């Protein structure tokens, strides 16, 4: 076949394969539309398009992937929770909210647990509650003051607080000035029903002074040498521990030791150095426990479920009884049985047991959740800052509160020996409440010092928000609506 004929056949086949265009709709004026506008004109006059299944088009319901329980709701809730936790002011609100909730719940439980004790000593039922409420008001003022103070002022107060605390701890050992309570010589009489325990302020003093000391040494790049890391931090801490142990208060000494180890850990102490100091402290603690019959008896009461015939382990056993009788939701607020003389110290060291008896497992888990939130927020503040003083101080306060809560709750549960330390922000005792609330204010101040938190707080001010909104509105030409 010649080439011209082959070309003609291919042309005819190509024309036959092209679909014919739709007929053009006539224009209103009677003028026919151009060929290129035939389809558009037909659609404009109301001609039907080819029907497609509903929802099969782009963006329709059928084109969307169905949500499943694994990839939809839970994952979206997790992402929202993660974004909410990553906000700049989250740590600020968590520290403030959890500490206030613990304090308020503690006031309620102090009143419930101490009313029988107050009536037993011929006092009004609100005797201990009134003193605790006054301490909470003063502590709230201290917390607000500490939260508003700049970081430089906190560092400037480190040395004065340490010197005043050491002076008061020395006064405790002077005969005629110091007082002995439950066999421990660690109280000062202030007149009337008020007493002061200076060793509680020693925890705050060690944190502020140690954080300032380590921050200045880190700025000078001296913490790489073990001598600068230990001296004079460890000798001053041992001096405070010696003054505390002269009064026989080993529980407070344990908390102070935990704070010391927390500061060394944050300073980046080598493993061998950290293990050496820990081993020395453990050996001293073992010697002090071994040489004291009272401490040995407390150690022997771990895990007991009933007191011995001679009356030993009475407090530990009845603390377990109180928790066991609470059930899921407790016997009701004020309906405790163990506080009627069966459980010693129901409003101080063993207030967690009364909480479990009256509020049940739900109440105790709520307290644990609040302490966990407070500790985690403190770790977040210490981990996100670039200021070494803020990192050491926030880490020290977090170590103090969490370690003391673990020791107190562990003793009530029978997992640890009874150390005689109160539950932070919760138990009765103004001497323990005041420095703890000041330390919480310290962490609030550190959370506010974060640059992102500062910007977020500035945006919440009415004047700044109004100016920002006015700045965002663009001016339009006159007459435009």
How would you describe this protein?
- The structure is a single chain.
- The protein has 481 residues and is mainly α.
- Helix content is 63%, strand content 3%.
- It has 19 helices and three strands.
- The protein has helices at residues 3-17, 38-44, 73-85, 90-120, 127-148, 151-156, 158-172, 198-219, 226-230, 233-246, 250-266, 271-290, 293-300, 314-324, 351-384, 388-412, 430-448, 451-459, 462-472; strands spanning 178-181, 184-191, 194-196.
- It has a three-stranded antiparallel sheet with strand order 1-2-3, with helices on one face.
- Strand 1 (178-181) and strand 2 (184-191) form a beta hairpin.
- Helix 4 (90-120) packs antiparallel against helix 15 (351-384) and helix 11 packs antiparallel against helix 16.
- It is globular and about 130 Å long.
- The termini are far apart.
- 37% of the residues are buried.
- The model is unreliable at 22-31, 33-47, 52-71 and 464-476 (pLDDT under 50).
């Amino acid at each position: 076949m010649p080439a011209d004929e082959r070309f003609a056949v291919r042309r005819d086949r190509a024309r036959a394969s092209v679909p014919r265009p739709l007929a053009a709709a006539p224009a209103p004026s009677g003028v026919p539309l151009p060929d290129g506008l035939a389809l558009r004109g037909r659609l404009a006059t109301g001609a039907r398009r080819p029907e497609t299944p509903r929802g099969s088009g782009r963006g329709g319901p059928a084109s969307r992937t169905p949500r499943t329980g694994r990839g939809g709701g839970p994952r979206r809730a997790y992402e929202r929770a993660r974004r909410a936790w990553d906000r700049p002011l989250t740590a600020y609100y968590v520290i403030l909210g959890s500490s206030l909730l613990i304090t308020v719940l503690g006031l309620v439980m102090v009143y419930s647990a101490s009313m029988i004790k107050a009536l037993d000593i011929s006092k009004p039922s609100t005797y201990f509650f009134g003193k605790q409420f006054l301490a909470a008001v003063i502590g709230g003022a201290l917390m607000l003051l500490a939260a508003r103070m700049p970081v430089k002022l906190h560092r400037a107060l480190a040395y004065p607080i340490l010197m005043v605390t050491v002076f008061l701890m020395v006064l405790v050992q002077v005969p005629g000035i110091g007082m002995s309570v439950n066999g421990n010589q660690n109280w000062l009489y202030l007149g009337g029903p008020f007493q002061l325990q200076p060793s509680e302020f020693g925890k705050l003093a060690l944190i502020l002074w140690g954080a300032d000391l380590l921050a200045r040494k880190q700025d000078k790049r001296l913490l790489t040498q073990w001598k600068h890391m230990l001296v004079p931090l460890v000798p001053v801490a041992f001096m405070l521990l010696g003054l505390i142990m002269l009064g026989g208060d080993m529980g407070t000494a344990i908390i102070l030791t935990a704070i010391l180890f927390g500061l060394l850990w944050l300073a980046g102490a080598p493993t061998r150095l950290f293990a050496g100091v820990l081993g020395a402290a453990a050996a001293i603690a073992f010697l002090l426990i071994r040489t004291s019959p009272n401490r040995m008896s407390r150690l022997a009461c771990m895990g007991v479920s009933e007191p011995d015939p001679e009356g030993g382990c009475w407090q530990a056993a009845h603390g377990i009884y109180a928790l066991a009788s609470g059930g899921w939701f407790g016997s009701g607020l004020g309906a405790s049985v163990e506080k009627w003389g069966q459980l010693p110290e129901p409003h101080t060291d063993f207030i967690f047991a009364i909480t479990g008896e009256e509020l049940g497992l739900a109440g105790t888990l709520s307290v644990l959740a609040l302490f966990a939130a407070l500790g985690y927020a403190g770790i977040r503040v210490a981990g996100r800052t670039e200021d070494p003083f803020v990192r050491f101080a926030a880490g020290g306060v977090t170590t103090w509160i969490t370690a003391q809560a673990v020791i107190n709750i562990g003793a009530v549960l029978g997992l640890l020996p009874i150390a005689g330390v109160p539950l932070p922000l919760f138990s009765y005792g103004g001497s323990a409440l005041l420095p703890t609330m000041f330390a919480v204010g310290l962490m609030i101040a550190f959370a506010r010092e974060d640059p992102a938190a500062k910007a977020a707080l500035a945006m919440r001010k009415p004047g700044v928000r109004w100016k920002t909104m006015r700045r965002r509105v663009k001016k339009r030409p006159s007459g435009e609506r």
